[in-house]
Specification:
alpha+beta; elongated; five-stranded mixed β-sheet; Conserved hypothetical protein from pyrococcus furiosus pfu- 392566-001, ParB domain; about 55% helix
Length: about 325
């Protein structure tokens, strides 16, 4: 049997157990809900299979993963399959067809739509002379925004989540187990921290808890790095002040500096200019960029210091 749309591609009835999911299906689209499969199964029961599924000669599905699942739910033994021998030798072309079919047929989540367009971009970038389908030409941000009716900050956050977050985080958002704003915080973490969140969710940790732990750990490490930087700057400025006092009056007497010392002094000069700029910025009353640790260490004050220092005559106790 042949389809006039694909005159060279035969359609055959295959046993359902001969078919297998495409390796990229789960990563791109996640698991289909039981409710979706039941709804599609009811449609198949009432109207039959309107369009054959598509598979490679080895049984790898390219189009029709949900229809196959619905047929299995109905207890079917066989299903009509269009055999895509034309895609067998080109994995990128097969994946492109997989993405195109899902974009056209399914009601996808915003994250899934973004994954589709980015997936198409990556496929074309990996193929010399590759060409995007007409519907996927143009800037990814514009394409996703146009299809979803989104723009601005929300769209940028959406694309950042798709590009940077593990799929476990993305699927948690799609299941409504994780707010998109919280997933956006994961996108701002370091790569190893993002992967740790994905691994925690895979192991069964609640997505919110996994993100909260990672963000708290990242904030703690960031605070420690900032404090260490502030201490280093304070130490540098203190030692520089001492050097100015000792060397300054006798700088004309300095002779025989090696080239390495001259290079270090040039680097120090650039560093000092940068620190001066930051010091000037900190003069702004509204600035909050001051680095912790730059202030001199405070002297310890006794609990009774307010009694030890008096600015006027002592008050008499009331009898």
């Amino acid at each position: 049997m042949q389809d006039p749309t694909y005159p060279d591609l035969p359609i055959e009835s295959w046993p359902l157990d001969r078919l297998k999911p495409h390796p990229r299906q789960a990563a791109l689209f996640g698991d289909t809900t039981e409710e979706e499969i039941r709804t599609l199964a009811e449609d198949l029961r009432r109207h039959g299979l309107q369009h054959p599924v598509e598979a490679l000669p080895d049984g790898t599905l390219v189009c029709g993963h949900r229809r196959v699942a619905a047929a299995q739910l109905l207890g079917w033994d066989e299903i009509r399959v269009r055999i895509r021998a034309d895609l067998a030798a080109d994995p990128a072309a097969a994946e492109t067809r997989l993405i195109q079919d899902n974009l056209m047929r399914r009601q996808l989540s915003p994250l899934a739509v973004a994954r589709c367009y980015l997936g198409l971009r990556h496929l074309v970038a990996a193929r010399p002379g590759g060409r995007l389908p007409d519907a996927a030409r143009g800037d990814v941000r514009d394409l996703v925004g146009r299809q979803l009716g989104l723009s601005g900050r929300h769209l940028d956050r959406l694309l950042a989540i798709v590009e940077r977050c593990p799929v476990e985080v993305q699927f948690a958002v799609e299941r409504h187990d994780l707010p998109i704003a919280v997933a956006g915080k994961v996108a701002g973490l370091r790569p190893e921290q993002r992967e740790a969140v994905g691994a925690a969710i895979r192991s069964g940790v609640d997505p919110r808890q996994a993100v909260a732990q990672a963000v708290a750990h990242a904030v703690g490490k960031r605070a420690a790095r900032t404090a260490a930087l502030g201490h280093a700057v304070y130490k540098f400025v203190t030692q520089l002040k001492r050097a100015v006092e000792v060397i300054g009056p006798r700088v004309r007497d300095v002779r025989g500096l090696p080239p390495a010392a001259a290079r270090t002094l040039e680097q120090a000069e650039e560093l000092i200019r940068g620190l001066k700029r930051r010091a000037q910025e900190d003069k702004d009353p509204g600035s909050r960029t001051r680095c912790p640790g730059l202030a001199a260490p405070r002297e310890r004050v006794s609990k009774n210091s307010d009694r030890d220092v008096q600015t006027g005559p002592a008050r008499r106790r009331k009898s």
